[in-house]
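REVIEWER CHECKLIST
Item 1: Sequence provided? yes
Item 2: Single chain? yes
Item 3: Sequence as submitted:
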Amino acid sequence: MSSSQQQEYWLISAPGEKTCQQTWDNMNNVTAKQSNLSLNFKFHIPDLKVGTLDQLVGLSDDLTKLDSYVEAIAHKIAQYLGDVLEDQRDKLAENLLANGVDLATYLTRFQWDMAKYPIKQSLQNIHEIITKQVGQIDADLKTKSTAYNNLKGNLQSLAKKSSGSLLTRNLGDIVKKEHFVLESEYLTTLLVVVPSQLKPDWLGKYETLADMVVPRSSRLILEDPDHSLFSVTMFNKVVDEYKLHCRENRFVVREFVYNEEALAASKNEITKLNMDKKKQFGPLVRWLKVNFSEAFTAWIHVKALRVFTESVLRYGLPVNFQAMLLLPYKKSTRKLRDVLNQLYAHLDNSSMGSGSADMVDIPGLGFSYSEYFPYVYYTMKLDFIEAKK
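Item 4: Structure as written out by the authors:
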């Protein structure tokens, strides 16, 4: 993961001075040119419809919830894409793009999408458009992931049956036709799993566990570190008795009927499931890539809406503020915070400008007292690529 993904971006706004350009220049001078504390970008927000103060206050709370929701959906898609890629997970970064570019590029060069979110619509309507859009992505993700996970689960279950202990694994991949007496009216062949330490017991006892056992009929089919699989042939009438005596001696009879058609169907099922998985893989990856981009870009638009709403609530009308994106350099965050607080101290004469840690809710503003600064302030991390646990 690149350092820009690990680090936290600060999205802030300050009121326009003589011009918004001057606001930008002053901030950039003290944080970047003079002290080299952060890498800065203008964050372009179009002229949105303001509405009434009451609407803005209500919308502020709604946007706080929407922000968390959309970010969570983007993370969910990214995580699931990593799961789907499996052993190609190292390619996750190149698949997590926003409008065809890497996430940092999209964020630092953000342009409002006029087609998806028309600025002639009210802020509430844009909020509803994003809510509906991301809600549909979330619902579709649940449907698609459930179908694909079921397919993977069935394959894993069959794979588990084809390996592991002889007590549980699928015997159809092990036994052969010649291991059985077939098409006999009187004889039956049983498959018995014997613990390795009891193998001498089995060889000494198997002919005497019941009457009418075919002498020297037991054949070793397969051994693993813990167990051995034997066949043994007897008359049908003593099968139940033989099973009982096997249990008494800790020999495990596996229920198995040799049927070539059933064995072929089982192998065909695995082949079909593998083909279905390969067939679904490509379209699912494409859908996840497209909808990660949709969710991520929607999230950045929600951030823009929050900055706009809070800036109007904080700085008043007419709308006159400059939104700015800062990427603090490592170990510079404390100094950067101090510089910004000094630069914008005049915006708020209360003690809240100190960034006090007391937790007091501020009605109408989407943050608590501990996060309150003289300027509008939000954070975001582009940490959508997580190490596999």
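Item 5: Key structural point noted by reviewer: The domain at 176-257 is CATH 3.30.70.100 (Alpha-Beta Plaits).
Item 6: Recommendation: ____
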